[in-house]
């Protein structure tokens, strides 16, 4: 879902309404609130003309962000509520979800885990509200990839995923203390070919052949295009933990040099916490989220 970044370059103008502190250069500095020319509203802390510290930003479309800012960007811990009723609670960097956080969808689904530059990336869990199923595993650039497990009410599947589709060996573990071993095989989807969409895969292969003939680099073809995952059972055994496939582990994250440079900059930031946006002591929702975040970080350290 696309979100608006906020007030944009208009904030540097004196157009609109601003009430609050200023420094000797006349820049917005310290505690204040502003109604922006585009109709957005901000109440919080400024530092040398930019939002910096804690603050509340209300978008004209109904979205709102409460949390930490740095250099006029969402940076730190914050809560974002979107117009459709979905919300995100967690870490931010450079206006993007980054770190650990939980996203609550309008249909009741919940993702809780790692984010990287605005996408689900790393170890996390996804709860499907409609059928009460939970997935735990890893994401890469917003897509399920690698080892994971699906927990149904009375059975669990341990296996591996490729571009969001189960693929390769795995096993089902039943509450009767037995295991069914087998593998997921990607096969052609008959419905996909009936609709004539199978031609797209053939065109990609032809294009790659032409590129190879001309000495150009081959374009990666999506192996899951027009395919469905089909389970092939092999045998059934009593439950033994050593038969389980590898467990999902946190992914290594490599920050860019500009990101690391920004982290090293220390600024004398004036911070304040308006009563309307500060987390109240004993807030159950806030305490619960912080507990999940701490548990996630501890598990990551132990696995590393």
Automatic annotation (TrEMBL):
Pfam family, one: MORN
Membrane spanning stretches: none
Gene Ontology cellular-component terms listed: motile cilium; nucleus
One GO biological process term: spermatid development
Keywords: Repeat
InterPro entries for this protein: MORN (IPR003409)
Region (Disordered): 194-215
Signal peptide, first to last residue: none
Protein name: Radial spoke head 1 homolog
Origin species: Euphydryas editha (Edith's checkerspot)
């Amino acid at each position: 879902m696309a979100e608006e970044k906020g007030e944009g370059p208009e904030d540097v103008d004196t157009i609109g309404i601003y009430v609050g502190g200023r420094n000797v250069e006349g820049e917005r500095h310290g505690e204040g609130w502003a109604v922006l020319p585009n109709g957005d509203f901000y109440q919080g802390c400024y530092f040398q003309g930019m939002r910096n510290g804690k603050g509340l930003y209300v978008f004209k479309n109904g979205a709102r962000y409460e949390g930490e800012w740095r250099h006029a960007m969402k940076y730190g811990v914050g809560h974002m509520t979107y117009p459709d009723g979905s919300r995100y609670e967690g870490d931010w960097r450079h206006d993007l979800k980054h770190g650990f956080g939980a996203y609550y969808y309008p249909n009741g689904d919940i993702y809780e885990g790692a984010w990287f530059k605005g996408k689900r990336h790393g170890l996390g869990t996804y709860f499907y509200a409609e059928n009460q199923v939970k997935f735990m595993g890893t994401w890469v650039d917003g897509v399920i990839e690698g080892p994971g497990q699906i927990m149904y009410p009375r059975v669990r599947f341990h296996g591996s995923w490729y571009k969001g589709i189960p693929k390769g060996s795995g096993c089902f573990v039943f509450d009767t203390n037995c295991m069914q071993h087998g593998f997921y095989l990607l096969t052609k989807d008959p419905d996909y070919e009936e609709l004539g969409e199978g031609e797209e895969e053939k065109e990609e292969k032809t294009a790659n052949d032409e590129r190879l003939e001309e000495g150009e680099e081959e374009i990666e073809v999506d192996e899951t295009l027009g395919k469905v995952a089909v389970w092939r059972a092999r045998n059934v055994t009593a439950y033994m933990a050593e038969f389980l496939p590898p467990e999902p582990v946190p992914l290594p994250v490599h920050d860019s040099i500009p990101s690391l440079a920004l982290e090293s900059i220390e600024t004398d930031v004036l911070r304040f916490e308006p009563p309307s946006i500060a987390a109240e002591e004993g807030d159950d929702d806030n305490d619960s989220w912080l507990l999940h975040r701490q548990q996630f970080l501890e598990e990551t350290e132990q696995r590393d």
